[in-house]
Write a structure and sequence with these properties.
77% of the residues lie in helices and 1% in strands. By secondary structure, the protein is mainly alpha-helical. Helix 2 packs antiparallel against helix 3 (48-77) and helix 11 runs antiparallel to helix 16 (459-495). It is globular, with a radius of gyration of 22 Å. The site of glutamine has 6 residues, from helix 15. InterPro entries: Dipep/tripep_permease (IPR005279), MFS_trans_sf (IPR036259), MFS_Transporters (IPR050171), POT_fam (IPR000109), PTR2_symporter_CS (IPR018456).
């Protein structure tokens, strides 16, 4: 381990193994995600509001499951086995969809949800393990990893839906097989992700191997095999449960009402077992987690209300691009553009002893988010009489929002690994993503609220109504940012030696 963590240069060499596995996994994930709502409406003939709710439910469950996946990894499987098992389930899910998406849609999706839960948090935790605690190159490493995420997201988000809709390779694929091929592509890239991991995992040395159980006499032994198989069986039991819950939105409500409080109780229990310094750090992590719910609640308008806004109120004054396409993939594109420069800026500022600490970075993230939403609000001043406004200005707003995402999301991953105790790494990463689950859920509620009773209004009325909503969201983001910066001395104290 020492050998890995004592690397020279900017990045540990092992990060590439994780980078590529995560890139392909995100290709699969965002490829599917991009197809969900479209497929539900055009192929499964769900009405729009039903589709919206079920879509939001799948997203909320995906992120909620990362919490479960994180705990099982910590306690029983270890990160590598979890990742492997999660990848397998994702492959099974996408193969089911590739074979018969119309009849087995929710079954396939549910496999993918559980699989992502085992895969996603644990690969992120392993990135953190490549660094010694206190290594100030950690944030830059997570920025690079985040670029991998978005490279996959960008490609998958674009190709899968384009193939499914028949906008690409239409002459090569028979019309009734397009969706099969699109979901099949997600399966294929997931296989590539796992193969990449299998062949490169050797380099990770001891990182992510099974956790050890501490005996009373201080000796450590391997976890019993039956527990490992128990986890596999249990995760298969979750699949039909998720299928049922996704199909009935009120079950999602009940789930969201219970999982959060239960998680908090469990976290407090774990906090009571550790020393005060550790406890304070976990408490600081919790503050980051809670703020991130607000962040994602606003940010995730992108998959919901902003797609509706893009469809009705944006022109194509940017290279003739389709506004929905830009709204879907613009963020990932900008991240690719800025991830490495931002990582380098942090390192440069660090050398000059000017690097803001994590709390201030989070605060900046909110300020950029707020500014971005104000910029979306401002598009209204460039609208024509029909209520259609400039895609270019909207894209500028997306860029600002992306800067905000870069100040919060990769840094959030990094800080989770730094603030949690050794034993709770997977769980804390899972909690970080659980916050995304709540963010998705919240985003759905906000979006639905903005959309109420506007279905039949004119584009101009829509423009006014939506932009007013975005102005409010901008304000909330700014308030959250200012609040975070104001409490930063306190949080800094809780974090003790972690920066
Ligand atoms: N876009 C990032 C990813 O897919 C972050 C998602 C999130 O935490 N909500 O990893």
């Amino acid at each position: 381990l020492e050998e890995i963590q004592d690397f020279k240069g900017k990045y540990p060499r092992q990060i590439w193994s994780l980078f590529f596995s995560e890139m392909w996994e995100r290709f699969c994930f965002y490829g599917m995600r991009g197809m969900l709502i479209f497929f539900m409406i055009s192929e499964l003939k769900l009405n729009e509001s039903e589709a919206n709710l079920q879509y939001a439910a799948t997203q909320a469950f995906v992120y909620a499951f990362t919490f479960v996946g994180g705990i099982f990894a910590d306690k029983i499987l270890g990160f590598r086995k979890s990742l492997f098992w999660g990848g397998l389930l994702m492959i099974v899910g996408s193969m089911i969809l590739a074979t018969n998406p119309h009849d087995f849609f929710f079954l396939g999706i549910s496999f993918t949800v559980v699989g992502t839960g085992f895969f996603k948090p644990n690969i992120s935790t392993m990135v953190g393990k490549l660094y010694k605690s206190g290594d100030n190159r950690t944030d830059a490493g997570f920025s690079l990893f985040y670029a991998g995420i978005n490279l996959g997201a960008f490609l998958g988000g674009y190709f899968c839906i384009a193939i499914g809709k028949g906008e690409m390779f239409a002459n090569l694929i028979p019309e009734d097989k397009r969706w099969n091929v699109a979901f099949g592509l997600a399966a294929v890239v997931m296989v590539i992700s796992l193969i990449n991991f299998i062949f490169t995992q050797r380099r990770l040395g001891p990182i992510g191997l099974q956790p050890l159980k501490m005996l009373k006499n201080g000796q450590q032994i391997a976890i019993e095999k039956w527990k490992e198989y128990g986890v596999y069986v249990l995760s298969l039991v979750f699949v039909p449960l998720i299928m049922i819950m996704v199909s009935k939105p009120e079950y999602t409500d009940y789930f969201m009402y219970t999982i959060g409080p239960l998680t908090l109780i469990y976290l407090f229990y774990e906090m009571s077992l550790v020393e005060k310094i550790e406890r304070n750090k976990l408490f600081a992590a919790l503050i980051f987690i809670i703020f991130s719910i607000v962040f994602w609640g606003i940010y995730e308008q992108s998959g919901g209300s902003l797609s509706i806004f893009a469809a009705h109120n944006l022109n194509n004054d940017l290279l003739g691009l389709d506004p929905n396409g830009v709204n879907n993939s613009g963020g990932a594109f900008f991240i690719l553009l800025v991830a490495v420069p931002i990582g380098l800026i942090w390192i440069w500022l660090n050398k000059k002893k000017l690097e803001p600490n994590t709390i201030i970075k989070f605060g900046l993230g909110f300020l950029f988010l707020g500014l971005g939403f104000y910029a979306i609000f401002a598009t209204k001043f460039f609208a024509n009489l029909q209520g259609v406004t400039s895609l270019s200005i909207f894209t500028g707003a997306l860029f600002i929002i992306t800067l905000g995402e870069m100040c919060l999301s990769p840094i959030g991953l990094s800080i989770m690994t730094k603030l949690s105790t050794e034993k709770l790494q997977g769980m804390m990463m899972g909690m970080w993503f659980l916050a995304s689950a709540y963010g998705q859920y919240l985003a759905g509620l906000i979006g639905a609220n903005m959309a109420t009773a506007r279905e039949n209004s004119s584009n101009l009325e829509k423009l006014n109504a939506y932009t007013e909503g975005y102005k409010d969201l901008g304000l909330y983001a700014v308030i959250a940012g200012v609040l975070l910066i104001a409490i930063s001395p306190l949080v800094k104290k809780l974090m003790s030696d972690v920066k």
